[in-house]
Every structure is written in C-alpha cells, then in structure tokens.
Amino acid sequence: MAVAKVIEISSTSTVSFDDAIKVGIKKAGTTLHNVSGAWVQDQEVVVENSEVKEYRVRLRVTFVLD
Description:
- Helix content is 23%, strand content 58%.
- By secondary structure, the protein is α+β, with helices and mostly antiparallel strands.
- A three-stranded antiparallel beta sheet has the order 1-3-2, covered by helices on one side.
- The longest helix has 15 residues, at 17-31.
C-alpha cells in the first residue's frame, strides 16, 4: 500500500506558463522523493506597460511517502 502527500508550490517564468510548470516540477524533484504528478491549480501573469512580464503558476504536487 502506498501513501501520498500533496503540497502546493508557486513557480514563475519570464518565458511561458509551460516553462513555469517545468521549473516548478524540476525544483520540487530536487527536494522531494517520488514525485508522481502535479495539477495546475491557478495561472496568472504580471503585466507592465501592456506587456506580459512574468508567468506564474500554482501547482499541487503529489509525491509518494517512503
């Protein structure tokens, strides 16, 4: 039987939402063991002078406990 835990993290990128997701998952994988999935809970952008400057995502990351 496996037991999993879900945590919430935020990640940002100046490139895209996709990149922000990849950055968040990669960082989570460096500190958590057995990451098995993630759900994008929320997306938002920072706008300056009518241009998107930053993409932000809030992720719920699932990992299996040892």
